[in-house]
Amino acid sequence: MSAFVDAIARAREGLSDRALETPSATLSTRLATLRNEGLAAFDEQGLPNRRDERWKGTNTAKLADLPLDCVGPGVDFDEAVLDELFVADFEADLLFVDGRTVRSSADRDELPKGVLVLSLEEAAAEIPDLVAEKLGALVDLKTDALAALNAGLFEDVAVVSIASNTRPGRAIRILSLSTSAPEASRASFARLLVVAGSGSEAMVVLESATVGQAPGFASIVSEFHVAENAKLISAEIQSGSAERVQVSQIHAALERDARFASNVLCLSEGLVRSEVDATMNAPGGRVGMNGLFLGRGDSHHDHFTTAEHAAPHCESDEEYRGILADSSAGVFRGRVLVRPDAQKTDARQSNPNLLLSEGASIDTKPQLEIYADDVKASHGSTIGQLDEEALFFLRARGIDEATARLVLTRGFAQTFVDGLSDESTRALVADRLDEALTALETAPGEPSA
Fold first, then answer.
1. Mind listing the pLDDT tens digit for each residue in 193-240?
2. Strands across the sheet containing 231-238
3. Which DSSP helix (H) or strand (E) runs through 447?
C-alpha cells in the first residue's frame, strides 16, 4: 500500500466522528450518499497511473509516495498567517482553510442583491434542497478516482447561488488555502458549488494557494450549473509550493442559450493537475476555455479539458497557453467531443507553447472526437521559443537580455490577461502573473522544442 493510500485509510477510520449532519434530512442523505459512493469508487479504482489514458503524460509516483500526517482540516488556524501571504488584497467573500470555511460573508449587505455565498452549514439552513439537488450531480465518480476521493472526504462546501436575472456589479470571490508544517503535512479536500439562475450574469473568482513548504495534497472540485440564458464566467488562480500536489477539477453544465467561460491561471511550482469539463446540454450553448500555465523549477503541469457538444447549434472556443522554463514539464490534452445529435457544431481549439530553456518540455495533444456530420471544427498546437529578431531589436535599444526576454514572455501571456472582462479580476491576475514572471529565472541560450 502506498504512503498516500495508507494515510487515507487511517483518515477513514475517523469519518464517523466527522459526520456530515445537517438540519435537512434530504441534504444529510445526499451528503451521506456522496461520501459512501465516493469511497467505494475510490476503492475500486485506486490512484490514477499512466495506464489510464487520461493520465498518460503524468507520473503520479509523487502523489502515491506523499508522507501525509493528517487528512482534512486542522484543529486550529491562526488567521495572522494571512498577513504573511499575498492574499490581503483579495477581499474574499468566503475563505476556505484545508477544506473548511473559516470566514464567510456574515453581513449579507456586503453581497450584491440576489447573490448568496454560503458555507455548507449556512446553506443547510437557507437552501438545503437546492444543494441536495445540485451537489455532485456533474461528476462521474466511477471514472474519476480523485473526484471520488474528494466526494468521500470533503467536509464543507462553498455554495454560490445567483438568482434569476441577477447581474452583480462585481465578481464573487472565493479563497482556498491548504496548509502544512514540517511536523504535519496535510491532505485537504474542498468543494465549490455555483448555481446561476436563468438570465443571470456573473463572475466567480477562485484563488487557491498553499501555506508552508512541507509536502501536501490539495483537492478542489468545482461544479457550475448554468441555467437557460445565463452567462457565467469562472476565473481560477492556482499557486503552490514545489512540494505540493494540487488537483483542481471544474465541471460545468449548460442549458439552452447559456454561456460559460472558464479562465485558469496556473502558477504552481509542484505537481498540478487541472481539469475543465463543460457540457452543452441544449441548443445555443457557448463555452469558452482559456488557460495559461507557467512552469518553473521542476514543476509538472497537466491540463486536461473536455468540451462536450451534446446538443445542436452550440459553440466552443478554447485557447491554452503554456510557458515552460528551467526543467519544468507541461502536458495538455484538449478534447472536443461532438455527440451524434450535435449538428451545426462550431468548435475551435488552440495550444501555443513557449519553451524558455533547454530542459523544459511540453507534451501536447489537442483532439477532436466527432460523431455528427454537419460540424465546423479546428484544432492546433505550436511549440516555439522567443523570437531572436525581437530579442535583438530590444537589446539594440539598450535593454539587457534578461529584461528583453521578460518583456517578450509577458507579451505572450498578455492575451490571457486581456481576455478577462472584469477590471478588478484582470488587475488581480496581472499582478499574480507579473510576480511569477519577475521571479522566473530564464537561462540564456537556445531553448529546445
1. 999 999 999 999 999 988 877 788 999 999 999 999 999 999 999 998
2. 100-104, 94-97, 172-179, 201-211, 231-238, 259-266, 286-295, 315-324, 345-355, 375-384
3. none
CA distance 409 to 247: 26
Contact 349, 366 (CB under 8 A): yes
Three-state secondary-structure class, residue 398 = coil
Coil, strand or helix: which one is 11?
helix
410 burial via Cβ count (<10 Å: 0-12, 13-18, 19+): middle
Grid cell locating 6: 495508507
- Among 219, 226, 326, 232, residue whose Cα is nearest residue 275: 219
pTM over 0.85: yes
| Full DSSP string of 25-42 | HHHHHHHHHHHHHHHHHH
Is 288 in contact with 264 (CB distance < 8 Å)?
no
Instruction: Give the strand pairing for 259-266 and 231-238.
Output: parallel
Distance CA 333, CA 261 (A): 18
Give the Cα separation of 185 and 237 in Å (integer).
Answer: 23
